[in-house]
Amino acid sequence: MFETLLYEVKDGKCYITLNRPEVYNALNNKLLTELHEAISICKNDDAVRVLVISGGDGKAFCSGADLKSGITDSNLGNVLKATYNPLIMGMKTLEKPIICKLNGMAAGAGMSLVLACDMIIADKNTYMSELFVGIGLLPDAGSMYFLPRMIGTLKAFELCSTGRKVFMEEALQMGLVNKIIETELLSYEVEKMADFYAKSATKSIGLMKNILNKSFENDLETVLNLEAEGQTQCGYSHDFAEGVMAFLQKKEPNFQGK
Prior knowledge:
Blueprint (H helix, E strand, L loop, with lengths): L4 E6 L2 E6 L10 H16 L5 E6 L4 E3 L13 H17 L5 E5 L2 E3 L1 H7 L3 E5 L3 E3 L13 H9 L1 H10 L2 E3 H7 L4 E3 L4 H13 L3 H13 L5 H16 L2 H12 L9
Helix pairs in contact: 1-2, 4-5, 8-9
C-alpha cells in the first residue's frame, strides 16, 4: 500500500512505522504525503481505536527533513503549507489517541512529529533536538506551538535557539515525554499502553483530546461550554451506557469506542 512506511491494523490498534532506514527515516515529500494519507485512513477506520507511530530501524525515529532529496520550492513557507502543516493538523484533530514509540533519535521536523503525538514513550538512551538553527532556519511543523505549552517559554526558547540535544532523563524532567524505558522493554510498554486505549472508551478520549488542545486558546467559560457539549455526546453514547451498567454490576466494561 505504501512505499515509505509500514501500515498495520490489529486488535483495534493501528501501527504506522516510518520506513526509510537508509536515511534515518528522514522526511521527503513521499513520506510526508503517505503519512498524511495513513492518518486519514486511520481516522476513517472504525476498527482503529489507537494509533502507534514509530521509526523502523531502531536507530532513528526520524532525522527531520531529507535535505539530500532537494528543495522542491525555494519558498519554504509554501512547502510547509502543502506538506507538513496538513500532516500535523491531521494528527492533532484525529479523535483517537496517538502514542509515539520514540525508539531512536528525533531531530528537526522529526521532533515536531513526536511532539504532535498525545503520549510519548521513549527509549531511555535516545535524544531529541530542534536542530533547525544549525542551518539558519526556525523550528516548524508545530514545534513552536507545542514546546512552550509543554515546558514553558524560557526552556522552549533555549531548545529552539541552541538546537542542543535533549537526552531522555532531562526530557522526562522537563515534561517532554511521558515515560522513559530501557531499550529491551520499550516495545512491551508501548504495547501495554496501546492495549489499554484499544479497550478504552475512546469516543470520550477523542473528545478529551479535542478540548485539551483548545484549552490554552479559550477562556474558562468557553471551555466549560465545550465540556458540556462533549458530555452531551458522551451521555448518548454506547460506552456511557456500558460503563454505568458494568459499574453497577461490578464487572469490566466492554467499551466499543462508540
